Amino acid sequence: MSSVKKVTLKSSDGEIFEVEETVAMESQTIKGLIEDDCADNAIPLPNVTGHILSLVIQYCKEHTSSSDSNSSKSNEKLKAWDTQFINVDLNVLFDLIMAANYLNVKGLLDLTCQTVADMIKEKTPEQIRAMFNIVNDFTPEEEEEVRRENAWAFEISLKNNNVVDTFEVEESMAKELQTIKNMIEDNYTDSVIPLHNVTSDILELVIEDCKKHVEAAESESEPSYSLASKLIDDPLKA
Amino acid sequence: MFETGSKPIRKRSDAWYEVESAEDILADILSRVPIKSLLAFKSVSKQWRRLIESSTFIKLQLRWSLEKPNYLIYPYMDGLVNLYQTKGNGEIIEKITLFGCEDIYALSLLCSCNGLLCFINYPFVPDSNRELVYLIDFDIRICNPATHEVYLLPKGSPSEKKISIGVAFGPKPWEYKVFRFFHPKYDSDDIKCEVYSSITGSWRGIGDVQYCPIGILYCPLGSNHVYVNGKIYWFLPEEGDIITPGSILSVDIEENFKVISLPDEVTAHAFLVDLEGFLSLVAVYDDDQVVDVWILHDSNESNWEKKCSDYVPFSCVDSINFVAARKTEIFFITSDQYLIYNLDNGTWTELDFEDDFESNLPVVLPYTESLLPCEY
After folding, report:
1. Interatomic CA distance for residues B182 and B159, integer angstroms
2. Which of A101, A124, A147 to mutate to test the interface with B (most CBs of B within 10 A)?
3. In Å, what is the CA distance from B117 to each residue of B112, B149, B156, B195, B202?
4. How far is B5 from B3, CA to CA, in rounded Å?
């Protein structure tokens, strides 16, 4: 039995990992060190903790064996493994991104960045700031200007299952519906709100109704809710 | 390894702070996010706004986007521009409505590249007697459906006979040129050409030219050119036959014209498309019910390769309305079918869009989202 070449990796918190060289070489950074003959002793990785390093090694192991000609891992199986692997909490996800970047493991960087991109794409700016603890450094006037430049991009999408029937509405109008207003104010909802209980036709009527209500309020006349919106608000309140 | 240029704007959870200060990673993540979200994300913070508006980021986003092109279907409608984005599997993933086009009689979609589309007025309009009149000149609009920007080009020089145009993109991502062939005098055969550059924002005459491409009226729904890899290609009519292609006229971004001969005789049902970065001629032959697909390997010589030849599954060849290509697929729209031909395995797939949109002389083009501006 031939001996498999191994390298030793040391995490920032002193954990030691022994990995096969082929697995370690999934990291272009480590590959470079090995090829430059700098890998005889333990390779110190001061930017990666033991927990994260073990995850990275797991990823590399899975992806090295799949490129092995004897492996029977199909692309679909690998994708399924990736999906399960990346199901971690946000801080671990960010740590993985940093590690994948530092260690230059392209596949992992792709996977982690794509995962974060998918997570944030339907979030409102307020939710983004809350999620990542970003301070809004715009003045109210500046922020208003940015919003005005692309006002339509801030609209909330109400949709049922058929994507062609997505309705873009301004926040003020969506808030006319009490249920949606609560969802927005609790920062509970993304910029796309699915409404499975409501058909497109009814939704169209309700939105028309809300528009009239908002316009009437702006011109200070007495608005009245139509029956349609009353009916809708009730099932939505569930 | 990490850029530490920006000052800390986070108080807790160091992990995200580190991601943010490593702007290249933030750019990587954001470049995978749909454009509509990106436009809203500009209001997250000054750093995010600066990043999203930077030319490096725009280029990065475009690079990603170009790897996953979709199709855009445009059913011809009056006063309404609805574009339907599809992956090519019969499922509509997005409907985009362009605003600012309501008072225009009708728009024809000519071409699509790097997320920008070119529209012109439909070439005939009703006059006071409700008779259809062919337009000699038309408005040219460049638009970006992802950012909802629509830009009307300034009018070109007067023409006494019908004009022809073509759009070239590049070399920089936000540079495009529109070539316009026009006839200054009705009773002469003089053809002149002028070029609009997005950088200068104006037309510049380049003098007399020898050739004028086949008029848009005789091409499927007004699209008579394709831009591939640095050059625009148009069909030139055969001698004495205004609707059958006889050869190809090409021009590069430096305004050098060249004529390329066709590999074989073609009928009026011939189309030019971009197949993986090469000019491709898709020629359908009515009598044999066959389609030949040719690739031009070297645009400096008429060096064509016949990529494949196959039977067409549609019965009446007269009904082909439009053809477009994406990666190794060719999308055919006939008067009653949507078909995709896969060049790799020679298979035809019929797509069913049900009642997703009014099936009104639709055209299809390959499309990817981008942040490129239409006007500079």
Report:
1. 5
2. A101
3. 4, 10, 19, 18, 19
4. 6
Relative orientation angle of helices A200-218 and A227-236, to the nearest 10 degrees: 110
Q: How far apart are CA B121 and CA B140, in angstroms?
A: 7
Contact A48, A55 (CB under 8 A): no
Tokens for B207, please give them: 């003098």
Contacts of A101 in chain B (CB under 8 A): 1, 22, 25
Compute φ and ψ for B147, nearest 5 degrees. Answer: -100, 0
CA dist B175 and B168 (Å) reads 9
Write out chain A residues lying below 8 Å of B11, CB-based: 133
pLDDT number for residue A219: 59
Q: What are phi and psi of B29, to 5 degrees?
A: -65, -50
The conformational region for residue B279 under phi > 0 = left, psi -120 to 50 = alpha, else beta, is: beta
- Residues 6 or more apart whose CB falls under 8 angstroms from that of B170 comprise B176, B230, B253
Cα–Cα distance for residue pair B363/B265, rounded to 1 Å = 25
pLDDT digits (tens, 9 = 90+) for B88-105: 787 888 888 887 776 676
Q: Scanning the structure block, which residue is given the tokens 């995978």?
A: B32
Distance from CA of B37 to the nearest CA of A (A): 6
Q: Is A110 helix (H, G, I), strand (E, B) or coil?
A: helix
Query: Tell me: the pLDDT tens digits for A150-188?
Result: 888 888 766 555 444 556 666 666 666 666 666 666 655
> Within 10 A of B49 (CB to CB), how many other CB atoms are there?
18
Q: What is the mean pLDDT of residues B267-295?
A: 88
Query: Helix, strand or coil for residue A54?
Result: helix
Tell me the DSSP string of A212-224. Answer: HHHHHHHTT----
Give the β-pairing of A156-159 and A192-194: parallel
**pTM, entire model:** 0.79
Question: What are the helix (H) ranges across chain B?
Answer: 14-21, 23-30, 35-41, 46-53, 55-67
Local structure of A135: helix, strand or coil:
coil
| C-alpha triplet B114, B270, B231: angle, nearest 5° | 35
Report the greatest alpha carbon distance in chain B: 77
Residues of A in contact with B12 (CB under 8 A): 133
Asked if the peptide bond before residue B263 counts as cis, ω within 30 degrees of 0, the response is no
CA B47 to chain centre: 33
Q: What percent of chain B has pLDDT over 70?
A: 87
Q: Which of A141, A190, A111, A214 is nearest to B40 (CA)?
A: A190
